[in-house]
Amino acid sequence: MRPDLELVRAERMVSGGAALCRDAGGEVILVEGALPGETVAAAVDRSRRGVRRGHVVEVTDTVPERVAPPCPAVARGCGGCRWQHAGTDAQVRYKAGIVADALVRIGGFAPGSPTVEALAPLPALGARTTLRLAIETGRGGFRRHRSHGVVAVDACPVAHPLLDDLIASTDFGSAREATLRCGARTGERMVVAAPDAVDVVAPPDVVVVGDDEVDAGAAAWIHEEVAGRRWRISAASFFQARPDGAEALVDAVAAASLDVRTGSAALLDAYCGVGLFGGALAGVGRVVGVEANPAAAADAAVNLVAVDASVVCADVAAWAPTEVDLVVADPARSGLGRDAAGVVAGTGATVVVLVSCDAAACARDARLLADQGYTLESVTLVDLFPHTPHVEVVSRLVAWQR
Ligand SMILES: C[S@@+](CC[C@H](N)C(=O)[O-])C[C@H]1O[C@@H](n2cnc3c(N)ncnc32)[C@H](O)[C@@H]1O
Description:
Blueprint: E1 6-13, E2 19-22, E3 28-32, E4 39-48, E5 51-61, H1 88-105, E6 116-118, E7 130-136, E8 139-143, E9 150-152, H2 161-169, E10 177-182, E11 189-194, E12 207-210, H3 211-215, E13 221-226, E14 229-234, H4 243-256, E15 266-270, H5 276-280, E16 286-291, H6 294-303, E17 309-313, E18 326-329, H7 337-346, E19 351-356, H8 359-370, E20 374-381, E21 393-399
Parallel strand pairs: 3-5, 6-20, 11-12, 15-16, 15-18, 16-17, 18-19
Antiparallel strand pairs: 1-2, 1-4, 2-3, 4-5, 7-8, 7-10, 8-9, 10-11, 13-14, 19-21, 20-21
Helix pairs in contact: 1-8, 7-8
Bound molecules: S-adenosylmethionine.
Residues 238-240, 271-274, 276-277, 290-293, 296, 315-317, 330-332, 357 line the site of S-adenosylmethionine (SAM).
């Protein structure tokens, strides 16, 4: 082994995607590319705030979970999908472990109460309907991991074929970044280029818009069909990255709120985006959607027109809570935080379903709600992003102090 490398053994995957490894002296190194149970020779790249980080140079003792990455761009350094070296079933187990660990270490919950259940994996390839590309000399690609360098690609195996085609057939001109979106079930496509789209040349069916125009309020959107409904999605609005994933989330939220959806129940869809949960959950009488992004709130108002719904464009943390039976709260990666958790609890809801896209935020928010009188009853992992360490978690909390 090269003298500059360290021989370490991987114990478990951690949030962010590296493996927690220990050297012979028991010291921790977070190593990219290692899998639990493996012994690897790792190069230490950097040390920050006492945490050493490195990457695998050679696997000296492997595990059956290791597979050959399905995408050839991985060998060229593409940082888009960093878990392609693990089988998809193993990825789901690792993610459930990361969430369980966060609930104990960050949330202060007892181990296994509750256990983290994982839904069956969604197809890993050909499904993503949103992609963020880095652009270099008119071509799309993905950033190298922990680098500003770009690995140009002509195809992306995780992308829906409608986007895969866009990567190859679009000249992104002088743009520096581009977000590609499609409606898998409507065939509609969009390119949002940053900082502008002045010299972007895309196939004629594609809505092309610049970030500068979006910031100035340009009306640019596509539609998608999810849960039997049609959704308007504006360029500036969030939407789940794949329609089958959006449906899996809706199903998980529906299962976690079955007992309170009586037909006359009032629902707060907090961080409602374009109105996904408020519009797709059957068996609620009245919906209040709260969303801070004006474009998304406008989409939600259109998408929920056939529902007894009101959409408020506001910061959830600053919204004056009204009484509801059920809250579905799906905040951004930073989570609810103390103020918004207070608003959620202030609704007096019997059931809160928390949708989290970060394990640490999930644990923090579940603890904040537990401290406000809610019992954490179930935690379900929905793997919307196979081949990446990204998690989506649906937690059910039930009021006990009312
Ligand atoms: C993860 S997305 C969820 C959207 C929607 N629930 C869905 O599944 O499509 C989070 C949403 O919260 C909105 N948001 C972020 N911070 C907010 C805040 N402080 N108050 C209200 N909405 C916020 C974002 O604009 C985004 O639409």
